[in-house]
Amino acid sequence: MLVDKGKLIKTTSLANTLSTFLFEPSGFIPFPLAWEWQRNWQKALLSKEDGNQAVWILQHPRCYTMGRGASERNLLFDPRNSSMDLYRIDRGGEVTHHLPGQLVVYPVLDLHRHKQDLHWYLRKLEAVLIDVLDHLDLEGETIPGMTGVWIKGRKVASIGVGCRRWVTQHGLALNIDCEMDGFQNVIPCGLHECPMGRLKDWIPGISVPEVQPLMKKAISKAFNITWKKQPLPESRPGQIKKKS
After folding, report:
1. What is the pLDDT averaged over residues 6-26?
2. Catalytic position from the list 63, 163, 189, 194
3. What is the mean pLDDT of the chain?
4. Cα separation of the two ends of the chain
5. Strand partners, 103
6. 164 with 46: CB under 8 angstroms?
7. Residue 34 near residue 41 (C-beta atoms within 8 A)
């Protein structure tokens, strides 16, 4: 059972009236480009109180990301002598592995329009994932004191967010039909003896295109938003450096 633990600060009805842009780029989007899209949108939203929110739903090529305070002890390879793409980024949480077959969601939401409460927001993202799994007749679980979603003791979804003046970035990653070998190079999310899983382990043949529409519906319901589409902004990755 999910319980909101944070202190409620403020609620408004703006989320009922403002639409949210939905971006679903095809192919595998390099992490630096997706990060730049989020940061640019966050900056614009911070400068305009009535600006539109945005959500990206996409897949990445193989890479690893580490949160602000993540420990290199959770890397099982030498980051200074490796060909693996590794990025130190502005979110909470430990090391996460991204790769094809994993559905990644990046909401850039203004929590002034929902609740100014990061605990509430994290629980909402978990609820989105559990809703998706429920539509697939899978029982998702949360663990008190941890963030993410498990199925039968195996972690299938990770969550890591950043927030600046109550405008979010980064988000969640759901393992669907990805290869699992890359998770052996790290201690995912800093959790020792925590086996990772994917939906394919319970539903053979499942694929990202089957799950993506369920994800869109679950996000829309959880945050009471209406989707609005437009072409992706043209942008090039900035000077986002790998961990050295």
Report:
1. 61
2. 189
3. 87
4. 41
5. 174
6. yes
7. no
Q: Is 194 in the active site?
A: no
Instruction: At 24, list the tokens.
Output: 């679903």
Question: Do the beta carbons of residue 168 and residue 107 sit within 8 Å?
Answer: yes
Q: Which sign does the torsion angle of CA 22, 48, 8, 12 carry?
A: negative
> Does the pLDDT at position 16 exceed 70?
no
Most trustworthy range by pLDDT among 7-21, 34-48, 82-96:
34-48
Tokens 């403020």 found at: 10
Residue 179, CA distances (Å) to 108, 182, 184, 202 in order: 28, 7, 11, 15
Domain locations along the chain: 14-229
Distance between CA 130 and CA 12 in Å, rounded?
A: 25
- Rounded CA-CA distance 41/232 in Å is 11
Fold of the domain spanning 14-229: BirA Bifunctional Protein; domain 2 (3.30.930)
Sheet containing 154-164: order of strands: 149-151, 154-164, 167-175, 102-108, 53-58, 20-23, 227-229
- Angstrom CA distances, 94 to 13, 150, 219, stand at 34, 17, 24
Q: Specify the residue for token string 């529409």.
A: 213
209: exposed, middle or buried (Cβ count in 10 Å: 0-12, 13-18, 19+): exposed
Helix (H) or strand (E) holding 214: helix 208-223
Residue 159 exposed, middle or buried by CB count within 10 Å (0-12, 13-18, 19+):
buried
Determine the average pLDDT of the residues in 69-97.
87
DSSP 8-state assignment for residue 7: P
